[in-house]
Amino acid sequence: MRVEFSRRAADQVAAIVAHVADNDPAAADRIARRVEAAAAGLADFPESGKRATTFPGLRWIVIPGLPYLLFYTIRPSGTVRIVRVLHAARQRRRP
């Protein structure tokens, strides 16, 4: 399957990486690589994420080794669309 990031999700990843890079550029690089690896894993196993109970069609995974959640949908075309990337401690209302 193909994986794509929404503009919002891409902006969130960029903001996370930029924030961490201010203090630790190497850690920021590791975060970027882990986000990319998690997204790539969804190409092979798109249904591996948990279903969000409040939003039909929405799934989420914990990005391995990071305190971040990756929210996504599986489109009828077979594309995995990543719609949000949020810190696990953050209150979630709407993806």
TrEMBL record:
This is Type II toxin-antitoxin system RelE/ParE family toxin. The keyword Zinc does not apply. Keywords: Toxin-antitoxin system. Pfam families: ParE_toxin. It comes from Salinarimonas soli. Belongs to the RelE toxin family.
